[in-house]
Every structure is written in C-alpha cells, then in structure tokens.
Amino acid sequence: MRDKTKELLEEIKAYRNDMVAKNYPFQQISDIITRWEMKEIPQKDFLEEVEKEKKELNESYQESVRQANERNKHKS
Q1: 62-71: long-range contacts at Cβ-Cβ below 8 A with a sequence spacing of 24 or more?
Q2: What is the pLDDT of residues 27-50, one digit of tens each?
Q3: Of 6, 19, 32, 33, which shows the fewest CB atoms inside 10 Å?
C-alpha cells in the first residue's frame, strides 16, 4: 500500500480505538479496516470510498451520541 493509504488506515484505526474507549460500537469500522487492508486498488478509488465510509461512520457516531443523550435525559 502507498504511504497515504497507510496513513489513512492509521487515522481510521485511531478513530476506532477512540470509539472503543468510549464504549461505542466499533465492529463496523473494524470491518472497513479489514476489508481495505485486503484490497489492492488504485489510490483514487480507495480515497473516495474511504471518505464516503468516514461520512457514514460519523453519522453513525452522531446517532450513538444522540441515543445516549436521549437515554440520559429519560434517567433524569
């Protein structure tokens, strides 16, 4: 893999590790990392797909935060 690809995977892994530390679901991002580590594809395609998946993960993360806030609201 190229340096930028490795750098991007490291960034995604750090994001996953942060999610794990905060007890958010992380299997989806682990699956993405595994899938992309196994692929040999052109750099441009990889970066486009990763940006799309990062957006989806961010939306999922925001939903997790919203649900946690909603649960905390009902506990009060």
Answers
A1: 64/24, 64/25
A2: 677 777 777 777 665 666 777 888
A3: 6
What residue spans of the chain are helical by DSSP H?
A: 3-21, 27-38, 43-75
Torsion of CA 57, 58, 62, 64, to 10 degrees: 20
Q: How far apart are CA 30 and CA 5, in angstroms?
A: 16
- Phi, psi for residue 9 in degrees, rounded to 5: -60, -40
- Which two tokens mark 56? 């989806």
Task: Output the six-digit token pair for 52.
Answer: 């799309």
Burial of 55 by CB count in 10 Å (0-12 exposed, 13-18 middle, 19+ buried)? exposed
